[in-house]
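Whiteboard transcription, Tuesday session. T.W. wrote the C-alpha cells on the left side:
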C-alpha cells in the first residue's frame, strides 16, 4: 500500500478488483494477513457486579473463556474444560506487555475462576492495556492468542477491548500482535487503535491523547485512499460519504489499521 503503482487503463480494472478484494478482507479480519485473526470489540465491554463476558477466540477451535466480575470486588477468569488455557505467572494469570511471546514455552493452566484482581491478589491490580495470553485446541494442536484488558485497582471493574489469535496452530505470537508485522503498543504509544467515537456522527475522529502521529491514510471499500492531517489528535473526514473506512498509520515497517464507521 505504501508504494505508488503506475498502471495503464488496460490493467486498471484488474487493479480495482485486487484492491477491492484486499479491503474486504481487511474489513472481515481487521488485518491484511489471514494468519492473525484480529477482532476489535466495539464498543469496549465494561463489566460490573456479577456480569460476565465470553470470548470465543476462534470459532473453529475448541474451548472458550469467560471473564467475570464477581461480588463487585473480584475479577476472575474461567474456562469450562482443558481445551482453553491461560498463561500463568505463579498462582495467577499473567499480565503481559505488548511484544511478550505467547507460545508453548510459557506456563499454562486451565483457569477455574482464577483471580485476575480482587484488590489485593493477582497480577492485574490497576493494570491498563495489558494482555491475557490464551490458547485453544484445534485439530490436535494449540492455537495461541491474547485478550487486551484494563482492570482497576479496586478489583470491581474490567474493560475488555480486543483480542486476536494465530490461526496457524502450533505457532507462537506476540501480545498485541495483529498481523505478521504489527504489534500495538510498541512504538511509543499504547492506544494506537483507540479512535472515537466509532461510529462517528459528525465526521470528527478523536485519537488517544498519547498518540503522537500527525498524518493518517484512510481507505474506502473500493481501495481508494486519501491522506489526512491529524490536528490536536483530531482528523476531520466529514466530507466523506457514510460508510466503513480503514484508518491506517505507518511507522517504519509497522502498519496499524482500524475499521471505523461514518454515519452522519
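and on the right, the sequence the group agreed on:
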Amino acid at each position: 500500500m505504501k508504494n505508488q503503482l503506475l498502471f495503464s487503463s488496460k490493467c486498471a480494472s484488474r487493479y480495482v478488483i485486487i484492491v477491492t478484494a484486499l479491503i474486504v478482507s481487511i474489513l472481515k479480519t481487521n488485518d491484511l494477513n489471514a494468519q492473525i485473526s484480529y477482532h476489535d470489540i466495539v464498543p469496549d465491554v465494561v463489566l460490573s457486579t456479577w456480569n460476565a463476558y465470553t470470548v470465543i477466540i476462534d470459532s473453529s477451535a475448541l474451548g472458550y473463556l469467560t471473564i467475570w466480575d464477581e461480588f463487585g470486588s473480584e475479577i476472575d477468569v474461567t474456562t469450562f474444560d482443558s481445551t482453553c488455557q491461560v498463561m500463568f505467572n505463579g498462582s495467577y494469570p499473567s499480565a503481559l506487555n505488548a511484544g511478550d511471546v505467547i507460545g508453548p514455552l510459557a506456563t499454562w493452566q486451565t483457569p477455574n475462576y482464577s483471580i485476575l484482581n480482587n484488590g489485593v491478589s493477582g497480577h492485574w491490580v490497576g493494570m491498563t492495556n495489558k494482555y491475557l495470553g490464551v490458547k485453544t485446541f484445534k485439530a490436535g494442536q494449540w492455537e495461541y492468542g491474547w485478550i487486551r484488558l484494563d482492570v482497576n485497582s479496586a478489583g470491581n471493574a474490567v474493560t475488555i477491548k480486543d483480542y486476536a489469535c494465530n490461526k496457524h496452530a502450533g505457532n507462537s505470537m506476540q501480545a498485541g500482535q495483529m498481523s505478521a508485522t504489527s504489534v500495538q503498543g510498541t512504538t511509543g504509544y499504547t492506544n494506537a487503535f483507540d479512535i472515537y467515537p466509532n461510529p462517528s456522527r459528525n465526521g470528527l475522529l478523536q485519537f488517544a491523547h498519547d498518540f503522537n502521529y500527525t498524518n493518517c491514510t484512510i481507505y474506502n471499500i473500493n481501495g481508494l485512499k486519501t491522506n489526512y492531517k491529524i490536528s490536536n489528535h483530531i482528523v476531520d473526514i466529514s466530507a466523506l460519504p457514510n460508510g466503513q473506512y480503514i484508518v491506517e498509520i505507518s511507522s517504519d515497517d509497522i502498519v496499524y489499521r482500524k475499521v471505523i464507521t461514518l454515519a452522519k
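Someone added at the bottom: Helices lie at 9-29.
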